[in-house]
Amino acid sequence: PLEKDDHGTHVAGTIHFMAPDADLYDYRVFGQDGDVDGDTAIAKSIMQAVDIDKCHVINMSLRCSYPVRPLVKKAIQHAYKKGVHLVCAAGNDGDGNRLTDELYTYPARFDETMSVAAVRKDKGLPSTSFSESNAEITYSGIGRDVASLTPNGGLQTMSGTSMAAPPRTAHI
Residue 102 in contact with residue 91, Cβ under 8 Å? Predict the structure, then answer.
């Protein structure tokens, strides 16, 4: 339920802090009560965001299944062809070696998307140990101990590439 979704609220809160006048849309793609699987929900949500809600930017702090199902790829391509910016979290299953190519980080690895890795708030902004890395990484952002909103008011800190992606989303 939305009132318990700290991940989505954290992501949306970060975008709101950085772009307070932006209209934010919430698309529920995971959970036990859905009538479709996660990949179908992702594809349907992208299509709704593009064709019905006329969104200009889509933040995807999530991962789809691998191998990638054609309906997800088609939705990504459709959004891209319509000029929608697709900002994706790179993923949190990195091995701590920034030279390793983690291969299953979709939708972040699509050519049509911007992939955002996570760095630490330390001198030189080193990669976090959890951030996935590969040649498709487009940007990096602070992804450790990021403060944002909680579902019922208040603040909390979270870490992940999902926390690194929203600032890029807000600046498009």
Answer: yes
Q: What does the alpha-carbon distance between residue 136 and residue 81 come to, in Å, rounded to a whole number?
A: 19
E strands present in the chain: 57-60, 85-89, 114-119, 137-142, 146-149, 155-158
Give how far the C-alpha of residue 5 lies from the chain's centroid of Cα atoms, to the nearest Å.
15
Task: Summarize pLDDT for 41-65 with one digit per residue, the tens.
Answer: 999 999 999 999 999 999 999 999 9
Q: What percent of the chain has pLDDT over 90?
A: 75
Contact 58, 79 (CB under 8 A): yes
Contact call for residues 158 and 10 (beta carbons, < 8 A): yes
Q: What is the rounded distance in angstroms from the CA atom of residue 45 to the CA atom of residue 57?
A: 13
Between CA 38 and CA 41 the distance in angstroms is 5
Give the separation between CA 93 and CA 146, rounded to whole angstroms: 18
**Bridge partners (DSSP) listed for residue 148:** 156
Q: How far apart are CA 147 and CA 140, in angstroms?
A: 17
DSSP 83-124: T-EEEEE--S---S-TTS-----TTTTSTTSEEEEEE-SSTT
Predicted model pTM: 0.92
Backbone φ, ψ for residue 138 (5° rounding): -100, -40
